[in-house]
Structure formats: C-alpha cells, structure tokens
Write a structure and sequence with these properties.
It contains 2 helices and no strands. The chain is mainly α.
C-alpha cells in the first residue's frame, strides 16, 4: 500500500531469515537421521544374512575356525548396530530441539506479521477517516458556495 511503511520491517526480515535458517538446520539433521536409518537397515540385513550363514555352517561340517570367525563377524555387526542406534537416538533428540527452534522462529514471524496487519489496519482506518474529513470539508464548501 502506497504511503504505508512498517517500522519493524527490517526486524521482520531478520526473523524470516532466522526461520529459514532454522528450517535448513532441521532439514540437515533430518537428512543425517535418514542416512543413519538407511545404514542401520543395511547393517541389519547384513547381520541377518550372516546369522543365516552361521546356522548353515553349524548344520554342515565346517571347521571351528570358520564358525568362530562368523561369530566374531556377527558380534562386530551387533556392536556397530548398537552404535548406530545410539547415534540415531542422539539425532532424534537433536531433531526435536531443531523442531522447537523452527516453531519458535515461526511464532516470532507470525507475531510480526500480525503486528504488521494491525498497523496496516490502523493506517487504513486513519486514511479512511482523513478521506471522510476531506469529503466532508468539500461538501461544506459546496454548501457554503450554493448558499451565497
């Protein structure tokens, strides 16, 4: 609207940039989390295949050394799986924190948007009041001219 200026526009831009920044950080954490979940799925598949191979080698006449190696491999996969689960839990917590940051930034932007709307409505009502005063003055001058 011509003539209307929101004095807090620069703050509004800063808040919007903060919101965008928070959303980007949340997206990064979500991407890392999804990557870890994909790694965990692949690791679980490997462990399941190794476990099946272990049971097959138990039923066949494989050497003790091979069975021992398979057991060690399965145990190492289990350890890596535990580590991945810990990392996933950490990222889930971080993701929740980032979500709260996004919500907070979004609320700040919404507050400024609402304030801007309120300022605009006050401005429009003032403009409308001034227009009405101007029209009233014109009508009064027209009435005075006709009455002379």
């Amino acid at each position: 609207m011509k003539g209307f200026s929101f004095r807090l526009q620069s703050l509004h831009k800063v808040r919007m940039a903060e919101q965008q920044n928070a959303e980007n950080k949340l997206s990064e954490v979500n991407n890392q989390l999804q990557c870890l979940k994909n790694q965990l799925e692949l690791l679980i598949e490997k462990r399941e295949k190794a476990t099946k191979a272990y049971y097959v080698s138990l039923t066949t006449d494989n050497g003790v050394k091979e069975i021992s190696l398979q057991t060690q491999y399965i145990n190492s996969l289990i350890e890596v799986e535990k580590q991945l689960n810990q990392q996933i839990n950490t990222l889930n917590n971080l993701c929740n924190v980032k979500r709260q940051e996004v919500v907070s930034a979004s609320n700040k932007v919404k507050i400024l948007d609402k304030l801007r709307e309120n300022c605009l409505s006050v401005y429009l009502s003032e403009v409308s009041r001034l227009e009405q005063l101007f029209v009233d003055e014109l009508a009064m001058f027209a009435f005075i001219r006709r009455s002379k």
